[in-house]
Amino acid sequence: MTLRDVRSGIEDLTTWANDTRPRVGFGLPFFDSRTNGGLAKAECAMVLASSSVGKTSIALNVIANNPKVPTVFFSIEMSWRQVVARLTAITSGTPTRELEELLKQGTTPQTVNTSVQ
């Protein structure tokens, strides 16, 4: 363990506070207003809750609102197809049920970017 004095802590805090990189927002006013606009460098968030209360929706909303931030997403409960359907619904504004019907008809909503890797 390294002992550090308050002065070095203030210097670190000042450097961190002046970081010009944008925060990673949740895209949800409830969270963003309480986190000063989202997560800053070296911050981490963990969303814990019971099943079926919206953890995946929160995570996908963060991804959708920060398209330039490299992201890794894991789900133990959902298949990749389900994750893509939800993310597409969020980014296109098309409910998953309607999206499925459109795809059955051979139509892809214009707001869906199928070239994303």
Determine the fraction of residues in helical runs and give it as a percent range: 40-55%
Through-space gap between termini: 42 Å
Distinct helical segment count: 5
Structural class: mainly alpha
Gross morphology is: elongated
Low-confidence stretches: none
Report the portion of residues in β strands. under 5%
Largest sheet: none
Number of strands: 0
The residue-averaged pLDDT reads 85
The H/E string reads HHHHH
What this model shows, in words?
- The chain is mainly alpha-helical and 117 residues long.
- It is 42% helix and 0% strand.
- It has five helices and no strands.
- α3 (55-65) packs across α4.
- The longest helix is centred in the last third of the chain and has 13 residues, at 80-92.
Structure summary:
By secondary structure, the chain is mostly helical. Helices cover 42% and strands 0% of the residues.
Could you name the key traits of this structure?
117 residues; mainly alpha; 5 helices
Write the layout of secondary structure elements.
Blueprint: H1 6-17, H2 29-32, H3 55-65, H4 80-92, H5 96-104
Helix pairs in contact: 3-4
